[in-house]
Amino acid sequence: MGFLVHRSPEASRIESFREGLRALGYVEGQNLAIEQRYTEGVADRLPGLVADLVHRKMDAIVVDGTVAAMAARAATATIPIVLVLASDPVGTGLVASLARPGGNVTGLATLYTELTGKQLQILKEAVPNASRVAVLGNPENPATALGLRGAHAAAMALAIEVQAVEVGRPSELEGAFSTMARDRAGALLTLADPLFVNQRAQIVRLAAKSRLPAIFSLRDFVEDGGLISYGLNVPDQFRRAATYVDKILKGANPADLPIEQPTKLELVINLKTAKVLGLTIPQSILLRADEVIR
């Protein structure tokens, strides 16, 4: 089977997936073979990597994220594709519905517009004086429009202004933060995207340099010095993906396997970063946090 990740190799993803498989009786090298492919965050590599997996006639392909999923679906309508960390597969056109996907794509996803709106609420609660929030997105990712839609809807209720800032390549990040500073953004929401994950050290550094309190979708950013993350538990998602692979290998049709949504999202806060920013995180947020880095 194939395992396609639109970012640099990282042990936690594949190891969590293997852990889920072992719990179901699959052991790599004994009754299962996994062909791993990584783009290193370069989207142009996706078509070639997907074509290679399709040519090798995988029994299923596990894909990380919306962009990788769309590349896989464009390459095959027959090989089952299992989503992990996908943003609103209905809104991006990957499946017909969550209950009955209807094609060769199934797996795990989150409703991105709702998630982004909740992230903005948390950010406003943490930084109540922020009247303008910059939203960093990649225009080449179809999920970006959905994230911005959620941010704009939440912003109206929170009486704040959203400033969309687009970055499609690493070289544009410095200029993006200069734009945020020029337009006096009071906080930053970074949308989920493989480019940003691969450049998270630079993004965290630029946010600190600009003294911008920021919220992210993955805890990786907070572990690297970002302020807040609210989103999926990544290892858990990859463990859960193994259940879809198991069903497919036992003959299930992906068209009939409902898309699973997370029942719990995790909130992680870095108090060391808050102290550097001169920010006091309200107790109401700290009490809800799944982890506080002190």
Could you walk me through the main structural features you see in this protein, from its secondary elements to its overall organization?
The chain has two domains: 132 residues, 3-Layer(aba) Sandwich (Rossmann fold); 148 residues, Response regulator (Rossmann fold, 3-Layer(aba) Sandwich). Helix content is 41%, strand content 19%. It is built from twelve helices and twelve strands. It has a seven-stranded mixed sheet with strand order 7-6-8-9-10-11-12, with helices on both faces. Strands 2-1-3-4-5 form a five-stranded parallel sheet, with helices on both faces. Helix 1 links the parallel strand 1 and strand 2. The model has no long low-confidence stretch (mean pLDDT 95).
